[in-house]
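Internal tracking record. Fields below are filled automatically when a chain is submitted to the structure queue. Please do not edit lines marked as system-generated. If the sequence contains nonstandard residues, flag them in the REMARKS field before resubmitting.
Queue: standard
Priority: normal
Entity type: single polypeptide chain
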Amino acid sequence: MPGRSLFTASRSGRCGRTDPSVLHFHRRLDENGRPTTTFGHFWNDAVAVWFIRLTRQELAVQDIGFQPVGRWSEPIAVGAAADPGLVAAMLAATDTVHVSNARTVPLTTARAPQPPVILCGDADHAITPAAGVGARDAIEDAAALYTALVSRGAPAAAMAERRHQILAERAQAARMFRTTT
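SYSTEM-GENERATED OUTPUT FOLLOWS
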C-alpha cells in the first residue's frame, strides 16, 4: 500500500503534556489492524522533532521534498488527532516539512527467493518506516545470508525462512494492536 511520510524538525520547547527524552508514538489502525497513520515525537531541552506517516496515494515527483508546512497542516492535524494541542504547537514552530513517498512491498505474494540474485532488506520486504523494524530486519537478513554462505547452505532457503519469520512477526504485531486499541 503506497504511503507518504512527512518528517521535520522544529525549534526546542516543551511539547504538550509528554515526558522529555522519550520517543512517543500515536497510531491509528484500520479494520485489519494495520497502521493508517503514525505520529511520533521526541523532545528535550535541546531539540524537538516529529514525524507523521499518512497512508495515501503516491505523490508526483514535484510534490515531494521540502514543502511549506501550511500546505500540509490540515492533513497532519487530522492524522495526528490523538493530541491536538501538541500537534498545533509543533505545526506553529515548523516552517517547512519534508515530504516523501514510502512504500510497502507485498511479501505474501512475492516470488520465492531464487538464484542468481537473492534480495534482502527493503529490496525484498520494505515496510512503512513507522513500523520501526526495517533496519533490524535488514541486519537479520544479512546475518541469515552470511550464515548460509559460510556454511555452504542455500541462500534462497535462508531468505525463504526469513520471510516466514517476518510474516509471523507482522501477524503477531497486528494481533497485538487489535487487542490493545
